[in-house]
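step=encode ok
step=design start
structure_in=
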C-alpha cells in the first residue's frame, strides 16, 4: 500500500502562508517555522504528521502529498481548515 510522511504549517490566511514560504525559501528551518506559526496541534512536533496513506487527509492535501516531489515545500494549499504549507518528507 502507498504511504507518505509529511509535515505542514497551517495558518488562517493566504498572505501569512506566502510570508512563511518566503522565510523557508530564504533558509528558515521548516520545523521551527511550524512551531512558531502553525495553528495545528502538529506544530508541537515541527508540523510532523507522521505516516499516512491515500485518502486519510482532505482531498486537496492528499493530491499534493501523493503527486508532488519529496522534500519540496508546496503551498499555499487551501482546505476547509485554512492555508497549508506542505513538505512531503518520504513516500513509498
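sequence_out=
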Amino acid at each position: 500500500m502507498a504511504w507518505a510522511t509529511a509535515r505542514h504549517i497551517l495558518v488562517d490566511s493566504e498572505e501569512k502562508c506566502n510570508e512563511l514560504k518566503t522565510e523557508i525559501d530564504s533558509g528558515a528551518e521548516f520545523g521551527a517555522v511550524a512551531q512558531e506559526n502553525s495553528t495545528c496541534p502538529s506544530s508541537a512536533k515541527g508540523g510532523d504528521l507522521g505516516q499516512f496513506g491515500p485518502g486519510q487527509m482532505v482531498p486537496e492535501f492528499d493530491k499534493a502529498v501523493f503527486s508532488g516531489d519529496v522534500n519540496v515545500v508546496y503551498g499555499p494549499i487551501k482546505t476547509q481548515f485554512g492555508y497549508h504549507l506542505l513538505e512531503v518528507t518520504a513516500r513509498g
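step=design ok
step=annotate ok -> The chain has a mean pLDDT of 96.
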